């Protein structure tokens, strides 16, 4: 049986306010992000979720904690759902880091990983998901790399296309993992 996956990005962070590409740094939610996380919970609490999976980075953990506090829905942290590791670029201005993003499709960022490596890492999470969660609806809170992995591995969108496109934030994406 398939797994229905709802994907949401972590809520707005202090680094988002400052135009910083956080990468593998923990990051913290801004006041705005805290309000948006509570709204996420209100939007998804009655959505038939069996579990919430989140990246283990602080900004994603905070999002899940605020959204699903006192709901009884298990929140599980998984490092494989992290953002791309920008290596030496973690914490640098996002405009500067993403100026030449496609150059790092297959070549790792200095001291980090490539986008394809990040997608492959998230793919290992997807491979494991049906082992326990087949036939359920789950929420995943992650990052750009998480969503691109879902778009690429589940929907078949070429990674070359994704790495050259705008992220296009919205309230949730839906996937069906068969």
UniProtKB/TrEMBL annotation:
UniProt-listed Pfam families: His_Phos_1
Protein's UniProt name: phosphoglycerate mutase (2,3-diphosphoglycerate-dependent)
Organism classification: Bacteria, Bacillati, Actinomycetota, Actinomycetes, Streptosporangiales
Keywords on record: Glycolysis, Isomerase
Binding site for substrate: 22-23, 59, 83-86
Principal EC category: isomerase
KW Isomerase (keyword) present: yes
EC number, UniProt record: 5.4.2.11
A single MF term (Gene Ontology): phosphoglycerate mutase activity
Active site: 10 (tele-phosphohistidine intermediate), 83 (proton donor/acceptor)
Annotated family: Belongs to the phosphoglycerate mutase family. BPG-dependent PGAM subfamily.
